[in-house]
Every structure is written in structure tokens, then in C-alpha cells.
Amino acid sequence: MMLILSIIVPILWGLLILLIRDFKSRNALLAVTGAGLAVAAVLGVAVILSGDAELFLFSFGKNLSLYFHVDNMGRIFAAIVILVWLIAGFYAFEYMKHEKEEKRFFGFYVMVFGILHGLTFAGNMVTYYLFYELMTLLSVPLILHNRSKEAIMGGLKYLFYSLFGAYMVLFGIFFLNKYAVTMDFIPGGTLDMSAVLGHEGLMLAVSFAMIIGFSVKAGMFPLHAWLPTAHPVAPAPASAVMSGIIVKMGVLGVIRVVYYIIGADFLRGTWVQTVWLILTLVTVFMGSMLAYREKVFKKRLAYSTVSQASYILFGLALLQPSGLTGSLLHVVFHAVIKSCLFLSAGAIIYKTGKTNVDDLRGIGKEMPVTIWCYTIAGAALVGIPPLSGFISKWHLATGALESGLGVFSWLGPVVLLVSALLTAGYLLPISIKGFLPGADYNYSEITKKEPKLIMVVPLLILAVLTVLLGIFPGKLTEYISALIGSVL
Amino acid sequence: MAFVQNVPFFSIMLSMFSGIVSSILPGKWARRLNTFMIIVVAALSAWLFAFMATSDIGSYTYAMGHFPAPIGNELRAGVLEAGTALFFCIIMLLSLWGGREKQILEITERQQNLYYILCNLLLSSLLALIYTNDLFTAYVFIEINTIAAGGLIMVRQNGHCIEATIRYMIMSLLGSGLLLMGICMLYDLTGHLLMSNIKEQVDIIMAAGTYRIPMLITIGIMTVGLAIKSALFPFHSWVPDAYGYSTVSSGAILSSLVSKGYIFLLIKIFYRVIGFDTIAGSHILNILFIFGLCGMIFGSVSAIGENDIRRMIAFSSVAQIGYIYMGLGLGTEMGVIAAVFHLLSHGATKSLLFVSAVGLTDASGGSRHFTDLTGAAFRNKTAGVGFLVGSFSMVGIPVFAGFVSKLLFAEAAVLLPNWKMFPTLIVLAVSTVLNAIYFLKTVIRIYTPVKPEVLAEKGFECKHFKQQVLFGVTIVLFIIVNLILGMKSQPIIELIEQGLHNFM
Amino acid sequence: MSHYWILAAILLPIVGGVLLYILPFKNKKYMHSYVELIVIITSVITGLVLFKGERGLLEVVHFVNNLSISFKIDGMTVVFAGLIAILWPLATLYAFEYMEHDEREKSFFMFYTMTYGVTLGIAFASDILTMYLFYELLTLVTVPLVMHTLTREAIHAVRKYLYFSLGGAAFALMAMIFIIIYGDSCEFILGGVMHTAAEGEHAPLLLWIYLLSFMGFGVKSAVWPTSSWLPQAGVAPTPVTALLHAVAVVNAGAFAIIRLTYYSFGTDFLAGTWVQYACMAIAIFTIVYGCSRAVKESHIKRRLAWSTVGNLSYIIFGATLMTPLGLAGALSHFVIHGFMKITSFFCAGAFMHVTGKSYVYEMDGVGRKMKCIYACFTVSALGLMGVPGFAGFISKWNLTEAAVESGNGLAIAGIAALLVSAILTAIYMLGVVHRAYFPKNEAVTIENAKDPGWKMCVPIALCAAMTVILGLFASPMVEFFEKIAFGIY
């Protein structure tokens, strides 16, 4: 009951926001939105805490049913969804002031929250696919919000890339319908081996299609191009949740397919795994490289997301406990870190209007808190101990070394390392130049530009979380390990 | 011998004598006599037809005069003959009715009775061709037929018609000449002129295996002669002018009856003189088949390019004659049945088209060009409906006559044991499309409304049913004939089959 | 209920249509009520006869040998007749408003109503000759509708339509002859009617003939290479494009192909032969081709027409799987596509009617002004894309399920084609939705755009609602189709 409410209530709430013709004042809109987010968050948390609930909603055809099942994997994702969505939402209260048509933004924002609940709690492939499509469709308005030409193009690019991915997944689902015992998510996989016998080649192709399909959302090469187009044009809170959350839903999809439907054993050692590993490593390296060369701040962050999301996919592709642990940890950490980075970028844009990295000299003097938060998050993403990014990368590297996949067991860590250096190279100069603009900088023009509290607090929360998760990863790691035990 | 069996003789004589009587009557009375005569002959034929269809004698020969064959002359009648005679009478009557108004306008007062003399002679010769059992009689009546038909074309005296008549006469006489040569050679080979006697001799000759080549040439010459006369492709150059420019009744009669009479005779020669197996064994049929196919395509293609509605219908006749020869060329009984049925259905449809086309052109200031015909069906509704039905039948829409013949052709083709099946089916399909192109293009054209201002400017008038009762009734009767052929085809086909069996 | 009521259902609209032309009506209102009454009564009779009617053959006219005009009710009939019986009254209602400024409204409604009867004739036809008859009549009776505007474009379109359709029918006629000769009867019997002996001896020939007739009937459902008439025929008034060129006429083509494949030649005979692969390949190609052309097209109705081309080949693809599941899949798309596409055409027509514009790039921001219309358009777009929860997903699901189940190699390519077409559908449909709701900042929105009257909105909303309802509660329908396909119904 709680489960269905956590999905339906935000959707209806968002719809309500969209349908109400006029809010008396901006505050009324914010109040309604805030209440919506809060209620949704509370419901979500309640579901997370209330044990393994199952819900069979209804069936709209043979083998086609809406079925929800709360499991530990879902809980992890649900937790970060709720966290990031709330924080970015409140941040948006201030940020969206300088955009028009806020009502639409908040309406869709609240609706997508409900959809995300549906995704994280989905209990079978069809339900997952349904909510995945809905997420794509409903998140488009967030991206093209300001309706400039670029924004529309970015939105459409995002839409069509995502749909393309979704249809690759659908292609797989059609086959799973025959070759899997059930489409419910069951740790370890549900393939009907007697049916698959003789059709292994087909099944591998199908798995590959599904992996690629979900990876589109996670920005894996060669279908990563939507990320750098869509992010810079979207409002900052939207970029933050895109990178922090929506990209992760692609990851969750891959996890569900590989570990809960097809089964890691089926893929281990096949060409699918090899190709997948190669693609992820290429993406990791290429993303960092492109980010390094990019001058537009938010685009740079977008490329960084491309790279980092493939860290996660790399971990998944190892099909090995340590790698998976690293991936899941990185899911959490990256969500927190990247939201923090985007929100800082948004704060800078909001206050100064500067979008190019070269213009940001001395920014640290003007907005110290923001840039401190940025720096902490950036350092964490690079993987500097004891910040959180280090933990996940450590696990990923160990996973690779332990995997026994020949060339990948050493190539993987090397690429990760190089990419980490590049990450440092593209993230940290902004802080350095921001705080230490150099001798020729005109210090007299500095004015305090720190944004309002409602924007700073979310940044602070995220930065603190980055640190805390890095210092005390124990509980989380344990939780994840326990979960992995059942999957692998 | 029942009295009814005299009907063949009576009807031939009746029509011939009324021709003679007409020569001294004024035009109006000649017309009345002609109408009366046709109705009587039709009634007689119907009587005979009913008798033959119900009795079990199959067919009978009727000795003309006192002397028995081989010296005397013979007629022969069966259900097919009687039915065809009935059909010809009906179509002729309707064609004359439908074109009467036009014909009164187009032919001078003085020549009115002449026109009906020719009509009467034409009918008598057609009946003779149907009933005769004697090749030489057939030849004589063919000549009468040719002359009468030439007169029918020429009676409307303008340049086009005279030129058309000359062309027609030349081609037709060429055909008759060939036929005559054929008959002579056959006489040389067999020593007989009576069909049944020739048949016996031919069978003996064929069985003996002698005179193969002369026989082949004879068959070939006779066939080609009749083919020229019935306007088979590529001997059709006279058709568009002759059918297109003569007065409408003549056009309708020529295309629906005259050419069909020759074909009927050809079928009769095939069955009764040479023997169908002999024919089927020779290559003559293959030639007919190929020319038939070419005609189907070529006639339609020419019709598509035509801008004059009458000439378009004339070219369509070329295509339809192609169908008939294609059916004969298949060399199976099914093929011949289909050909005979098409003979009927095309006769009924083509005359309808000619007659209604005239209604349309009259409503368009006499212009026959498509640009002026726009919306003509609204100005003359009866003619519009007539043309619509005719077109549907030509295109092969079920419930109309044309569909059944197409069905029969295709069925015959499918059952073929040889290579002809695929060409037939493909050409049938293609020619259907081509038919659709030019007929339905015209239908769309005549049913496209025009603004009243434009009409007023061009001075076109509307014709209502009340102003043209006879025309309207004719069209309705034509449509009924068409529908009967289309919907009650089963008994007709059975009778054709029975009639062909009687031929043997 | 005696099965003579079938005749009533077929003849009522035909006679009613003719009477409409003859009767003098005092004003439009009377005429409209008369037309709607005729259509509704026909629908009611059809509904009753479908579910309560006596089963068995009703022979009306006997032609030659085993050829006759006769009717019966079987599963396929229920599907087709049921579909159009639901849609016709709605489309007629819509047409009243759409045609309100038209001068020649009377002749329009005459033929529009007559087409209903003729289409029912196809649905009720019990043998191939009867179907052929009504099939030809359908071509002819819709000609005046297509050329209603009498523009040069319309006349060109109508000629193309006519020549293509009649040409196709001529090839279909060939198949009919072969069925008459090599079949035990001409009746439609699930599993086919061919002699076993004939199959063995003349198999290569019969396969060729099947291909010919497939292409022949395929003309009506716009299978490549004869698909170009459909977008051209988009010049017709929208009620025609919506109901006839998205449902009745084009579905008649698919219906005929299904009849031919499953009920005349028989799948046992055809399955696994080269001809199956050839037909399937044609269908697959058409799917992709139609959708690609739709993406390129910017005239809204032509875009939808190209989309129809693609979607009809979904049905054909299902049919060419030649398994019962394939038939069930084909039937579900048969019905579902009808509802979805009629919705989108109605919406496009409403846009054109209200604003007088007809290109996609003129739609900037109208979604905010024509709320009801564009909400429904969005629903149909999502349906056509195959988003779960909307009807389109169900049919896609059934089709692909059948394709996977068939184990046919080419069918996998077909699945891929379905998905490619889904993404293309997303591009051409969501492109429209986007423009309507999220215009670029500098774009100018048409001033006078507003929702049309209830006569348009109600049919649109009902069809859109059906898209959603069928998407959520499809099980009974799909089970029914499976029953039909397995011959239990």
C-alpha cells in the first residue's frame, strides 16, 4: 500500500501542479512543490524501511504484469534517489527564480520522483521498462525547460537516444519472454536453460542488446553523445539529477538484466563480457579526455559523468563480487558527488552567469563556500583518500585484479588510474585558479556573491556526505557485500 | 418436324423481304417496319430457343427447298444458334432505338429508308451466318453483310465516313477474298461445300496423313480472312474511324454484331468444318492466341492515348476482340466457351457504351473531346449511368457481364496444360488495369461537377429523362441485359457448352 | 437472430445513402440526424448479429458452379465488423462538424454512408468471390470521397488510387481463379481449402500465385512498392482519411491477405516456403520504409499516412508469420492500430479545421491552446510508439511474441524492424507533440487556435480513451483473438 502510494502520490501531485491554472504567488507554488517532495520522500523512506514488500498490481496482458518488489538493490538506489532529489529540489527553489514557467518544471520534477520510485521498486522487467520509458518521456521537459533552440535540440537528442536504448531493451524483453522462466527479478538469473539450449548465440546477442540499451542512459560509448548536449542547456538542478540519478537508472537496468535475469554465470567469459569491458574502458578514458579538453563548465562535467558512469559499468562487467561492490559504492558516491558538482556549477551560473571555465578565475574569492564544496566533491571524484571516491575505485581496481580476465585485470586498473589523473586535471584547476587567481588579478573588483542559504545548504549537505561516506564506508560496504552474496 | 423448326428459314426470309419492302416505303414507315420485323424475329428466335433448350433433339438440319444435301442447301439450328440469333436481335433493336434521335438528325430524310434497308439486310445476313450449314452460303451472306455494313457507315455522308467506308471495304474485301480462296481450296481437297460433308472428308484426310500442308494453308487463309473482317490486331486500322465517325447506331451494330457474326462463323468452321481437334493440333491457334494477346494490350494502350470518347470506345473494341481470339487460341473447350460468352457480354456492353457516349456528347454541345465532357453525366443522367455500368462491366466489376467473361477466361487459362497459362493470366491482369485506366478516367471526368457559370458560357444543356424516353428506356434495357449476363451466367454458360457439343 | 439480418446491416447504409441523395431535406440538422440514425442503427444491427446471430451460411445469389454471393459470421468477421461498427458512428459525428462549411456535403455523406455497407460486406463475406465483389465496390464507392475537393491534386490522387487498387484486384482475381479450381470450395475455412493433391502437384505454381495475390491485395493496405497512393490520397477530407485510409479501406486489404493466407491457401501449405519469406521480407521492408518516409514528411496528414503504411505492415508481418499466434498478433494490431491512428488523424484534422494550416512546422505552441485535441494526440503518439500502458504496446508485444515463438530467422529481423520503426515513430510523432507543447522561444503561435466543438472532441476523446483502455485491459481481447486464431471461436 505504502509502495503504490509512493509512486502514485507524487505523480498525481505533479499533475495537480501542472493542471492548476494559476498559483497566487510563487511561494504558493513552492509550498505545494515542497510539500509534494516531502510527502514523496517520506513515503519512499517508509517503503525502504518497511521490509521486503511485494505488490502485484494488475496484469495488462499475458506475461505482462505490473509487479513491485522491494529488495536491497532497490533500496540502495531508492535511498540515493530520495536524497539527491530532495536536495536538488530545494536547491531549485532558488535557482529556478531566473527561469520562466517554473510551474511546469516543478510539476514534472515531482512527477518524475514518483516514476523513480516505481523504477527502483519494480519487481519485473516489464514494470521496469514501463517506468523507464515514462521516466524518459517525463524528464524531457526538465531538459528543454528554457525552450531555446539548443535546449529543444538537446531535449530531443536525449529523448531519441533514450528511446533508442529503450527499444534495444525491448528487443531483449521480447526474447526473454520465451527464454526466461519468469521476468521477475530473481538474484542469480531466471533463464530457462532448457529453452536456451541451442540458442546460446541468440541469447548472448539479446543480452548484449539489452546491456547496450540500458547503457545509453549511462552514457556508454558509442551512445554517449546526448549527455554533453543535454546537460549544459538544462537548468542546474535538472543537470544534477540527470547525472546523479537518471544516469544511474540505466545502471540499475543493467544490473537487473545481468544479475537478476540473465545471470552473471551465463555471460562470464563470453564475447559479450569482453566487448562490454572494452567499451567501458574506452568510455572511461575517452570521457576523461574529452572533459579535459572541454571549456564549457557544465559540458566538462557532463563528459566527466560519461567517464564516471562507465567506471560503474566496468565494475559490473567484471561479473565479480569486488567489482560489483565497487560499482554499487560508486553509484552512491558518484550520485552525491556529481550532484554537488553540478549544483555548484549552477550556483556559479546563477550568480555570475559565467559558463566558461576560463572566466572563473578568482571565483573562489567571490563564492568561497560554493567553491569549497566543489573542491571537496572534485577531490572525492578524483579519488583522493579518505574521500568517498577512493573507496569505490579501490574496490573496482581490486575487482579487476581478482577477476582473472587476462589483459583486463591489469589494463582496467591502469585505465582507471589514468582517468583519475585526468579527472584531477580537469576538475581541480578550477578550484586552484578560483582561490589563487594569480598576481595579475584585480582584487579590488571582488564582491561577495555567495548565493542564498537555500542554495548553499544543499551544497554543504552533499559535500559533507562525500566526506562522511569516505571516512565511514563500513556500514554501506557491509550492506552491499551482503546483498552481493545473494546475487553472485 | 415441329413447326417451330421453320423459324431459321422464316427469320432470314422475313428480314430479307422487309428490306425489299422498305425500299418503296417512306423513311418513317421503313423504320416502323424494321422495328416490327426485328421484334417478330426476336420473338421467333426466342420461341425456337425455348424449344431447343427444353427438347432433347440437340440440333437439327433444315433442308432448304426440295433437294437433299449435297445438292440442296441446308440450314442448321441448335440452342446456341437460336440463342445467338435472339441476342443479336435484341442488341440490334436496342442499338437502333438508342441511336434513333441522332440518326434522324444525321441522315437526310431521303436516305432514311435506305438506312433501314441496310439494317434489314444486315440482320438477314447475320442470321444466315448463324444458321447456315453450307460454306458457300456463308460466303454469299458474308458479302451481303460487308456491303450492308459499308452502307451503314457511309450513310452519314461526310468526309470521315466516306474515308472510313473505303478503308473498311478494302480490308473487308481482302478478308472475304482470303475466305473465298480458303473455301475453294477446301472444295478442291474435299469435294464438298456442305459443312458436315467436308468434316467427314477432312477427318479421312487427316487420318490418312496426306495433304497436310494444303490443309494447313487452307485453315490459315480462312482464319486470317475472318480475323481481318472481325478486326483482330493487327488488322484493325479501319476500326476507329468506322466505329468512331459513323452514326451511333451503326457504330454500335458494327462493333457488337457484325464482327461477332464473323467470329461466330469462325467458331462454327472450327467445330463443324475442320474439327476442333485438328485445329487445336495446328499452329494456327497459337498465332491467333498471340495476336489476341497483342490486341488486348495494344487496343487498350491506344485507347488510353485517345482524346475522343467515340474513338476510345472503338479502340477498346480492338482490345475486346483480342480477348475473344485469345480465348479461341487457348485451344480448349473452356477457352471457346469463354470466348462465346465474351462475344455476348462484349456485344451487350459495347453497344451500351456507344449509345450512352452519344448521350454524353450531345449534352456537351456535340463535342467528343474529354475537356468538354467534364460533368456530362450530370447533364444527361441516364447516359451517365449507362456509361458507368458499361465501364464497370468492361473493367470487370462483379455482377456485371464483363466480370464473368474475365472469370471464364482466367479459369480456362488456369486449367491449361501448356505454356499459355502465364502469358494469359498476366495479360488479363494488365489489360484489366489498362481498361480501368481509360474507362474509369472517363467516368471520373464525366462525374466531375462543373460550375454553372462555365456551363452557361459553353451553352451546354441538360437533358432530362422526359425529353428522351426512348433513349432512357433503351439504356435501362441494356443495363438489364448486362446484369442478366452478369448475375445469371450459370444457365447461359451451360447452354453455350451444350450448343458447342451439338456442333460436333 | 436470423442471419438475414446480415443483409439488413449491409444494405441499410447503402440504401440509406442513396435515399439521402434523393430525399429533400429541409435543413442540415435533419440530414445529419438522418445520417447518424442510419449509421447507428446499422451498428446496432451489426453488433446484435455478431453476438446473437445465427451461425451458418447465407447464400444470396448463386453464380456459376460453386461461386456465389454469400455471407457468414466467423471470428475474423467479428473483429472487422465489430471494429468498424464502433468507429463509424464516431467518425460520422466528427464529419458533421468537419464538413460544416462544405458545399457538397450531401454527396459526401451519401458515399460515406454507403462505404459503411460495403465494408461490412467485406467483413461478412463468406467466400472469396463475395469478398472480391465488395472489395471492388469499396474501391469504387470511395473514389468520390477521395476526390471530393475536386482539386487537381485530388483528381490525380484518385486516379492513382483507382489504378493501383483495380490493378491489385486484377492480380487478386488470379488467385481467386486458382482457389476456385484447386480448392475444395471457395469458402473461407481456417486452415485453407486447397486439395492436397493439387498442393503437391502444382505447388510451385500456387506459390507464385500466392505471391501475386499477396501483392494484389497488398495494394489496399499499401504494401511496398504500391504504397504511394495512400499518402497522396490524404487530400481527401479528414473524416475519409481518418476512417477509410487508416481503418476501413486499408484494413480491408490486410483482412483480405489474412483471409487468403489463413483461410484459403492455408498456412500448412505456405509456411516454410520461399514465398513466406518473400512476403515477410516485403512486410518488413515496408515497415521501415513507411516510417522513414513519415519522418521526412512535414505535411501532417501525409506524415500520418506514411505512418499508416508502416503500421499496416505490422499486421501483414504478423500474418506472414503463418502461425496462430502470428494471426492473433496481427489481429490485435488490426484493432488497436485502428483506434490509435483514427485518433491521430482526427486530431490532425481538428487542427486543420480550426486553423486552416496543415504543416507540422505550423503547429508551434498550439498544444497549449487546443488542449483536448493535443492531449489525445499525445495519447495516440505514445500508443503508436508502443509505450507500455498504451494499446500499441500490447499489439507489438503479441506480434513479437509470435515472431520469437515461430523460431523463424527472418522474424527476428522483423522484430528489429518493429523496434526501428518504433524509434522512427517516436521521432515523427513526438516531434509533433514537442512542437505543440514546447515551441521554441521565438516561434509564433497561431492566434485563433482553440478546441473545436463537441462533435469533434467527443469522438476523439473516446478513441483516445480506447487506446488507453485497450492498453491496460487487453487480456480478454487478446484471448479472444487467440481463440479465433486457433479456430476455437
Q: What's a quick, concise take on this entry?
A:
With about 500 residues, chain B is mostly helical.
Provide a descriptive summary of the structure in words:
The complex is a heterotrimer of chains A (488), B (504) and C (489). Chain A has 488 residues and is mainly α. Chain A has helices spanning 2-19, 26-49, 72-95, 102-121, 125-143, 149-179, 193-196, 200-217, 226-233, 236-262, 264-267, 271-293, 297-317, 321-352, 363-366, 368-382, 388-403, 407-435, 453-471, 474-487, and strands at residues 54-61, 64-69. Chain A has a domain at 268-488. Chain A contains 20 helices and 2 strands. Chain A is globular, with a radius of gyration of 22 Å. By secondary structure, chain B is mainly alpha-helical. Chain B has a domain at 283-504. Chain B has a two-stranded antiparallel ribbon with strand order 1-2. In chain B, a hairpin with an 8-residue loop joins strand 1 (59-64) and strand 2. In chain B, helix 2 (27-54) runs parallel beside helix 5 (112-131). Chain C is mainly α and 489 residues long. Chain C has a domain at 271-489. Chain C has helices at residues 5-22, 28-52, 75-98, 105-124, 128-146, 152-182, 196-218, 229-232, 238-265, 267-270, 274-296, 300-321, 324-355, 371-385, 391-406, 409-437, 454-472, 475-485, and strands at residues 58-62, 68-71. In chain C, a hairpin with a 5-residue loop joins strand 1 and strand 2 (68-71). In chain C, helix 13 (324-355) runs antiparallel to helix 15 (391-406). The radius of gyration of chain C is 21 Å and the shape is globular. The mean pLDDT of chain C is 85. At the A-C interface, strand 1, helix 5 and helix 6 of A face helix 15, helix 16 and helix 18 of C.
